[in-house]
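Lecture notes, structural biology module. Today: joint structure prediction for complexes of two components.
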Amino acid sequence: DIVMTQSPDSLAVSLGERATINCKSSQSVLYSSNNKNYLAWYQQKPGQPPKLLIYWASTRESGVPDRFSGSGSGTDFTLTISSLQAEDVAVYYCQQYYSTLLPFGGGTKVEIK
Amino acid sequence: QVQLVQSGAEVKKPGASVKVSCKASGYTFTSYYMHWVRQAPGQGLEWMGIINPSGGSTSYAQKFQGRVTMTRDTSTSTVYMELSSLRSEDTAVYYCARARIEWELRSDLDYWGQGTLVTVSS
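The predicted structure, tokenised, for the full assembly:
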């Protein structure tokens, strides 16, 4: 089974500053036949279900602000919030969908410094 | 608009079973796989399994094999998740979530139900 590991567990960033979250998979999630990375990022605010932010590792879901960006390939991925806003306080999860079992990373809590 | 509406909170005793429903609307129910994800209090997301609403085939995470059953009713566009032999560690919010890509087993999840809190307590 593919294991997803996120780092850090939490981070505190000043308003307007950059936040960077890492996600590593135990095996490559790059599918060679279509050259797509089967990796998604979700945002979860307290008391709410998760919200899809990014799919195919770098494609923003419709309506997601462009301060959110995803990058990486193979086994190493990054979610970047370029200029943190107060409404971005949340827990962020990565998920691979390369295999038919869809594990999530452990989550990264983003707070305001 | 796509909506996933789940059944209400449940309180169960250890050893009992619980069945959570998820009623879909706003899209062709049989065209998109449905997943179940749970979240224990203060913990992360845990993927439980997937059902194909068209044919009813399922795939479960190893951890839940033998205890979980996912079914669907195409006449009401509803999927169900039943978990048996409940223990205190099963106390969690249970979510249904739709695959974003039509007909695709391997997909990210674009629409989520509101969640159903299941509490297991004697």
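Point to remember: Chain B has a mean pLDDT of 97.
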